[in-house]
């Protein structure tokens, strides 16, 4: 028996283009006092990153020729097929890397290997929607002699920030002394620079503030105004907005604001023409606001949510969905005077004619620092298997 432990040291969330590093440890759990006859042998171990794509048959019509093209190629090249038994299609994979061949472990002995691979920068982000799913996994395969292959799958999350693909790092290595022993160090340096660049780009994009004022009105007149200071956010931020009903001609009885994502299939892949868009609500604020001059809301964008993106099959957009309930009468008629004495009490009317209308405001949601997103990730940094 051999225990295989895979650990992602920095956490299970990465930016596309970063280097994923995983330490894989093989251990013989028997006591060191056992005889040498209890030694364990492994023929080989290999690791590979792949992205699985799965689509809902009721919503997405995929070309039948796409089938399992990647699986056939992998079976022709090697017996190690990381996506074997997985749902959907393997749309992206890195070259497999051999960790070792012919490993012998004595009782109580363990060996560790470091697997490093750059995540493709042009791949899709991790996403679990109502129509499609993009799932990333690191699969480690190992085999005893004359035994079936065992697979250890390590799921992780990938965030995509547009703009990193076209950035060229300064070629400062040409003037530096050449040292072949520093290859790994230079790779980590470039990886850290990419993370710093992403953080800088996100800070610039989401820190710009400018006043956006919108008039809220229906067919009968003005209800109020809405104010928001920016429309570009990172996941983990709060969307804050304010209402001013004091200048409205139509009394607003109630309003609600929902933070939603809009998942739409590209027209050529739709199962039915004119197929409706799928909406998901991530946060909601509702408030009764009769005789309220000003009000506000704060909706958090979950760190576990997916930033907006577009692929050849699906696109995901974010929006604020507003719903307003207004009175057909003036504000003074919404209350009834209950007493003529010195202590005057007012009570609400029993029935009231109302109008309802909605409004959508598109916003842009970008990724955040992957280390921050790792704190709330549903994936574990450590995965293990016994073979």
Automatic annotation (TrEMBL):
GO terms for molecular function: guanyl-nucleotide exchange factor activity; small GTPase binding. It holds the Pfam family Rgp1. One of its GO terms (biological process) is negative regulation of protein catabolic process. It comes from the Eukaryota. InterPro entries: Rgp1. One of its GO terms (cellular component) is Ric1-Rgp1 guanyl-nucleotide exchange factor complex. Coiled coil: none annotated. This is RGP1 homolog, RAB6A GEF complex partner 1. It comes from Strigops habroptila. The gene is RGP1.
